[in-house]
Structure formats: C-alpha cells, structure tokens
Amino acid sequence: MSVVGMADDPPQGWFDRALQWIPRVLSSKPHVVFLSLLGVYLVLLPLFGVVVSAHAELIGGNYTNVTSDIGACIAAGGTLHLIRQGRRRMKAEEERTRLLRDIHGLLHDLRPHLPGAAEAGRLLPPPPEGPATPPHPGPT
Predict the structure, then answer these.
(1) With CB atoms counted within 10 Å of each terminal CB, which end of the chain scores lower, N or C?
(2) Is the pTM here over 0.90, yes or no?
(3) Which residues span the domain enclosing 47?
(4) What CA–CA distance (Å, rounded) separates 129 from 69?
C-alpha cells in the first residue's frame, strides 16, 4: 500500500476528520513561526542572560520540547508534500496511459489487418533465423 492510497481513505467520523487536519496544522506557517518565537524566548534568551521564569518554562517547555516540535512540523510538511507529489504523478500517469490507448486505437484503425493488432505489445519483429549464439567448437 502506498502513502497516496492511505491518504485517499474517506474519513468515517468526526474524530477521523479532525485527525486529518493535524499534519496541515503542524506544518502551517503560523505554527512554525510560533514555535520559532517560542524557541527564541525559551532557548536563545536564557543563553544571553535573560531570566525566563520557571512558570514560562513549565508551560512552554524547554529546548528539547521546542526542537522536537519543530522537527514534527518539518516531518508533517514533508509527508504532505509527498502525498501531493504522488497524486500529481498518478494523474500524469493516468493521462499518459489514456494517450497511449488513444494512439494504439488510432494505429489499430490504420492497420487492422495485421495479425494480433488488437493486443498491445504483440507486434514484435520475428526472431532472427539461425542459432542465437555461434556454435561452440568441440574438443579435437
């Protein structure tokens, strides 16, 4: 099963529909900006001597929480990108297949008398006559 096939499942209930929004929310620009500002407040400012209250650290977390949240944003954005890219590739492949079938139908209309023209891939040239490999000289 591909990632694209998993994303095409229709949501069954309100909880499933809510869960489908999590990657979009995590990878949204406002969320990334918020986490970056939180990282500046909780990680960079204390490095420069600014005292951050314990209450703020309790609510906002520490540098490991902030960096792992930013990593989750990157992963969610990458997953959404792969899903979109897979859907685009599938549409392009369906279009190519449709065009090839149309071309095959047109060629069949031009040359319907050829043997096996109705089957795709059956119009191969005949095999060469004679042995495929030169005969091996035997012991003398």
Answers:
(1) C
(2) no
(3) 3-110
(4) 68
